[in-house]
Amino acid sequence: MASVNESELQDIELELFVRALQRRHGYDFSEYAEASFRRRVQNLLMHFKLRNISQLTERVLHDDASIGEIVARLSVPVSEMFRDPDVFALLRTEVLPVLASYPHISVWQAGCAHGEEVYSLAILLSEAGLYDRTQIYATDISAQALAVAREGIYAARELRTWAANYLRAGGAHTLSDYFHSRYGHIKLDESLRRNVVFATHNLVSDAAFCEAQLILCRNVLIYFRQPLQHRAIGLFHDSLVRGGYLCLGTKESLSFTGHADAFTAVDARAALYRRKDYSHAA
Ligand SMILES: C[S@@+](CC[C@H](N)C(=O)[O-])C[C@H]1O[C@@H](n2cnc3c(N)ncnc32)[C@H](O)[C@@H]1O
Predict the structure, then answer these.
(1) Which domain holds residue 126?
(2) Which of these three, 74, 94, 110, is where a domain ends?
(3) Pair 23, 138 in one domain
C-alpha cells in the first residue's frame, strides 16, 4: 500500500471533489487557477464546518440543496458600482459615441456577480441617451448571484464608495438619483432593469449566444488558467460584431491567449480592446 502524507491526501480529495462537481452537476472547475481555488475550498469547509474535503464531496454527491451555495462561494461574486471609475469614464468617452451609430445596441456582461456593473452600465447608457435602444445580457455561472442581481438591492454602507466612483467616472448627476433608500439598504430604480436579461451562462462549457457591440468581462479571467482564458476570449470574439469592443479587468489581458491578433488595444491599461475587421464606421 502506498503511503501518502497530509498534503498528498488533500490533493487526492481536491481532485475527487472537482470530479464530483463536474460529473454530478456539470460544473467544471478543473481549469481554474489552483491557489485561489484551493483557498475558496478551504473557506467552504469553514463555512459548512466540515473537517475535510471528502465531507464536502459527500455534500456534492448527496445534497442537491447546497449546490447553489457551493458554486456561489467557489466563484467569488465580489464587485462594486463603477469599479475602476477610469474604465467607465473611458467607456463613456470612447465607446458610447461609436455605439450611438447603431440603431440597436447589444451588450453582454459576462460574470456580472451581484449586478453592480450591470446597473452602472445601464446608468452610463441612460445618461448618453442610448439605454432605450439597448439590450443588456447579464450572465454569471452562479444562479444565487443572479438572484441578488435581479433584486438590485444593496447595503447602504457601499454607497459612499460607489457615489465617489460614479463622479470619477464622469457621472452627470448624483448616484442617489438612481435609487431609493430604506432600512439601511438601497434599491436601484426599476427603470434601470427594464432592458436587462439576467441568465446563467458558464464560460467553461456554454456557447456564444449573442451578437454584441460591447462585451464586458471584468475580473473573471484572473480565476482561470490559460487554456480556459483562451476559450472565454474565443467565445467573446465569436459573440462580437466586427469592430465590437471587449473590456476585461485591469489585471487581465488577452496578450497570452492566442487571440491577441484578432483584436486591437484601444487602451491597454484599461484592458479595452476592439475586434478587428471593422465594418462599421468609427
Ligand atoms: C470577481 S466577480 C467579477 C464581477 C464584476 N465583473 C466586477 O469586475 O466587479 C467574478 C464573477 O465571475 C463569475 N464566474 C466565475 N466563473 C465563471 C464561469 N465559468 N462562467 C461565468 N461566470 C463565472 C463569478 O460567479 C463571479 O460573479
Answers:
(1) 85-275
(2) 74
(3) no
Ligand 1: does its nearest atom lie under 6 Å from the Cβ of 53?
no
CA of 103 to the centre of ligand 1 (A): 30
Provide the whole-model pTM.
Answer: 0.95
With the most atoms of ligand 1 within 8 angstroms of its CB, the residue from 114, 117, 118, 141 to mutate is 141
Instruction: Render pLDDT for 124-156 as a digit per residue (tens, 0 to 9).
Output: 999 999 999 999 999 999 999 999 999 999 999
12 CA to centre of ligand 1 in angstroms: 27
Residue 53 sits at φ, ψ, to 5 deg, of: -65, -30
pLDDT in tens, 30-62: 999 999 999 999 999 999 999 999 999 999 999
Same-domain status, 130 and 157: yes
Ligand 1 neighbourhood includes 138 CB (under 6 angstroms): no
Q: How many domains does the chain have?
A: 2
